[in-house]
Predict the structure.
Amino acid sequence: MTREPVLTARGLVKRYGRVVALDRTDFDLYPGEVLAVIGDNGAGKSTLIKAISGAVTPDAGEIRLEGKPVHFTSPMRARDAGIETVYQNLALSPALSIADNLFMGRELRAPGLMGKIFRKLDRKEMERIARDKLSELGLMTIQNINQAVETLSGGQRQGVAVARAAAFGSKVVIMDEPTAALGVKESRRVLELIRDVKARGLPIVLISHNMPHVFEVADRIHIHRLGRRIAVIRPSDYSMSDAVAIMTGAMEPPDAPEAA
């Protein structure tokens, strides 16, 4: 029995003047998998991810979430539909606490009149949930949930961003170059976080230039070139040099995309 993809795109087109960023590209993400998206600079993979996460509106084509057509006009709309994105710059507010960052844009109001009329925040509940979410992902080396994010290490900040996505991403988590600015030890912890999120049943889209990391955690690899998906391969069937060769055009891509 063939599994149905949780997120698909068909024939996506995006033009910026004469530049074609997406040229009738397709995309498939299956339940519970880590799908890596790789491509050379300018290949269009960032535009593809922006289209899926609501940051860019395609000129043509269709995106389906759980089989239903969706039209995201903003990242907020994608987020409301259950697609969370961890951006390369983390999109965290350094001066705010860990709990405040986790609930940024979706703060909990206190029950009763204080919350409804005076818009008082339910800080205790937000702190409790933040602590639970960090504990679930093994991040409680962070002692104080109220400490400012700017006091954390790079790996801990990435952990907070991943925890936020895992906490609220009910259907898909997208991670854009999550280890790009990290050292070896902190990169290792982020890869463990990716496995933890996957173990919770959430499918992950991983955009990365780091081939060892891609081949370590990905179930399938979407290869993007010249605005299109040219291949989907399994790390068990191809080497890193094969993937790079397909990506750069030095090697012919497989005839058909590999299904989940």
Q: What stands out?
A: The mean pLDDT is 88. Residues 184-199 form the longest helix (16 residues). Strands lie at 7-16, 19-29, 34-39, 60-65, 68-70, 83-86, 172-176, 204-207, 220-225, 228-233.
